[in-house]
């Protein structure tokens, strides 16, 4: 993956990193904001639920106080006491009803009962169900007389909030209890909806045992809430439908303080969830807008930065190809512009240093070539000088004179061919091809080193078929074997064996030159045929093997080192039996006949 990403250009990397950074930033911000909103929403729901319950308490307390005050006013009226003193139910009903209609609300009920709880008159919208002949709440409130009592009462499966007020008259032995006034309101769904409107949308559910008395919730949600059993009277979270709800449970107590039912105040979190969803959508839209703007700004900024960087990259590629004259266009004076100017100065410096290095290398190469030529001319000149000196200073026989003349001729011809080869290389010309016996060519090269072989006690074994003839540039090929034999002799200063064999492989004649010296060092095997590689040699410039291999390549063959050779160096010379198009290259140069190559094609 790292390798694949490393091949991507900088612009996609910048855009990708920007989008990832913005996404992480907005994700973290959105998560923190959402958590803060959720916590605030939960706290708000709890506060709203408590506020709704307090509003309910305040409303129902005011209603209870209103009932109590109305009953108290009636209980102190002289007409009421006079009517109650008659003990006539009709009189009591008429008197109480006439006065109650003036001060009561339409949804309130008014009951007149005797001290034992038997009902004398029922005023207001009394339901058809229930037992209105006797009210047990009167007996429950009797312990608190002459004080008023208020609470909840169940009658006929209906729930009522009531206030009980005793009516006394002055008697000889003190006050006498005449009747009891019971005023109240029915608690039903209508009352629950009135509470919901008064508290800003909280739902109210009144229950008595397992029966739902009044509810503002849907029947299905009411059933789920009824099945809920609170663990404690504090705020609790309940799933109703697909939304969480905050529920506050409060008991409804009768006149004795015992619970006869429950009030459950419910506040839904659906509104908070909608606000959170709107917040999420808003954060998402802001993230998309910020991402688009950031990517656009990043792209513009990256183009301004990466444009010069790309030009610097192309300039570096041109430098890698050796074009040190390439320059980078400077478009600004900022850091990138200064870097481009520095790059151009570096290129100019490298180009100047390269030109100076080439000039010095040419001078050094000329010196090395001159040294090599002098080295190659030294041996034939020494032979000519020695032979001429013997002819002048000594009286020699005819055979000795002929042998010296042959050596002088061969040495002079070697000098001529060296000079001609140098002129040909300088002018792009090559020698002509001639057909020679391979064995005679190797013997001629070996004869030039015979004195060294004798002085170093080196045994030479040459196993080449005398009938093998090859078309070649004779002088260059002779120098190849002369160089290989000279290197072998230099590697065996204390004696050894030099073995030269040849065999035919297909269309090639393969010649092996093998010695018993120390071999080729591993340090220079890979660069053995490069120019100026002369590691471990006491003399020479390291050009012999390079020139020799080039000679074989020009003939369509090759020169290589056999890595499987044991003990010493083993060079393999591959010469094509028919060089083909190599023949006739260059202008023919007249060369006098040489006895060492009797089958020449002049």
Global structural class: alpha+beta
In total, the number of strands is 17
Radius of gyration: 63 Å
Fold-level CATH name of the domain at 430-602: Heat Shock Protein 90
Task: Please report the first level of CATH classification, the CATH class of the domain at 430-602.
Answer: Alpha Beta
Poorly predicted runs: 581-602
Q: What percentage of amino acids are in beta strands?
A: 15-25%
How many helical elements? 14
Give the helix proportion (percent range). 40-55%
What is the annotated CATH architecture of the domain at 430-602? 2-Layer Sandwich
Mean pLDDT: 77
| The CATH homology group name of the domain at 430-602 | Histidine kinase-like ATPase, C-terminal domain
For the terminal residues, how far apart are their CA atoms? 70 Å
Q: What is the global morphology?
A: rod-shaped
Q: Largest beta sheet: what is the strand line-up? A: 2-1-5-4-3
Major beta-sheet overview: 5 strands, antiparallel
């Amino acid at each position: 993956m790292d390798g694949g990403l490393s091949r991507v250009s900088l612009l996609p990397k910048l855009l990708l990193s920007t989008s990832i950074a913005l996404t992480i930033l907005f994700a973290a911000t959105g998560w923190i904001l959402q958590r803060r909103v959720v916590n605030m929403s939960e706290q708000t729901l709890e506060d709203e639920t408590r506020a709704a319950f307090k509003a309910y308490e305040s409303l129902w307390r005011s209603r209870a106080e209103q009932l109590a005050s109305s009953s108290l006013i009636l209980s102190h009226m002289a007409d009421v006491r006079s009517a109650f003193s008659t003990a006539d139910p009709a009189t009591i009903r008429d008197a109480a009803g006439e006065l109650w209609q003036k001060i009561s609300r339409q949804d309130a009920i008014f009951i007149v009962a005797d001290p034992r709880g038997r009902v004398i008159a029922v005023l207001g919208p009394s339901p058809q169900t229930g037992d209105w002949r006797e009210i047990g709440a009167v007996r429950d409130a009797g312990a608190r007389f002459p004080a008023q009592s208020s609470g909840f009462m169940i009658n006929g499966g209906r729930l009522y909030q009531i206030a009980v007020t005793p009516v006394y008259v002055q008697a000889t032995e003190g006050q006498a209890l005449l009747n009891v006034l019971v005023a109240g309101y029915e608690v039903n769904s209508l009352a629950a909806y009135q509470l919901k409107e008064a508290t800003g949308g909280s739902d109210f559910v009144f229950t008595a045992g397992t029966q739902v008395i009044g509810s503002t919730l849907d029947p299905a949600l009411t059933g789920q809430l009824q099945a809920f059993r609170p663990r404690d009277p504090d705020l609790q979270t309940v799933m109703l439908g697909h939304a969480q709800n905050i529920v506050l449970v409060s008991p409804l107590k009768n006149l004795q303080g015992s619970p006869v039912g429950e009030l459950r105040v419910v506040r839904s979190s659906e509104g908070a969830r909608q606000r959170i969803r709107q917040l999420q959508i808003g954060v998402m839209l802001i993230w998309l807008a910020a991402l688009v703007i950031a990517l656009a700004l990043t792209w513009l900024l990256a183009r301004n930065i990466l444009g010069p960087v790309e030009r610097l990259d192309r300039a570096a590629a041109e430098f890698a190809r050796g074009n040190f004259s390439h320059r980078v266009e400077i478009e600004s004076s900022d850091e990138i512009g200064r870097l481009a100017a520095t790059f151009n100065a570096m290129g100019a410096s490298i180009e100047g240093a390269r030109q100076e290095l080439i000039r010095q290398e040419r001078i050094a190469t000329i010196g090395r070539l001159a040294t090599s030529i002098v080295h190659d001319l030294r041996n034939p000149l020494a032979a000519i000088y020695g032979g001429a000196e013997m002819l002048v200073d000594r009286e020699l026989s005819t055979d000795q004179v002929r042998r010296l003349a042959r050596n002088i001729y061969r040495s002079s011809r070697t000098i001529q061919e060296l000079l001609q080869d140098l002129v040909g290389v300088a002018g792009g010309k090559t020698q002509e091809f001639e057909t020679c016996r391979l064995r005679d060519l190797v013997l001629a090269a070996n004869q030039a080193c015979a004195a060294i072989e004798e002085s170093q006690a080196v045994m030479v074994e040459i196993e080449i078929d005398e009938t093998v003839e090859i078309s070649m540039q004779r002088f260059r090929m002779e120098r190849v074997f002369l160089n290989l034999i000279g290197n072998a002799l230099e590697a065996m200063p204390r004696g050894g064996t030099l073995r030269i064999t040849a065999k035919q492989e297909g269309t090639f004649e393969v010649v092996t030159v093998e010695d018993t010296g120390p071999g080729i060092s591993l340090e220079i095997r890979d660069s053995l045929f490069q120019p100026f590689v002369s590691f471990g040699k006491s003399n020479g410039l390291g050009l012999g093997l390079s020139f020799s291999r080039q000679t074989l390549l020009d003939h369509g063959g090759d020169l290589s080192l056999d890595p499987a050779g044991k003990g010493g160096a083993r060079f393999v010379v591959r010469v094509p039996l028919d060089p083909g198009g190599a023949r006739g290259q260059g202008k023919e140069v007249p060369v006098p006949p040489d006895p060492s190559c009797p089958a020449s094609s002049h």
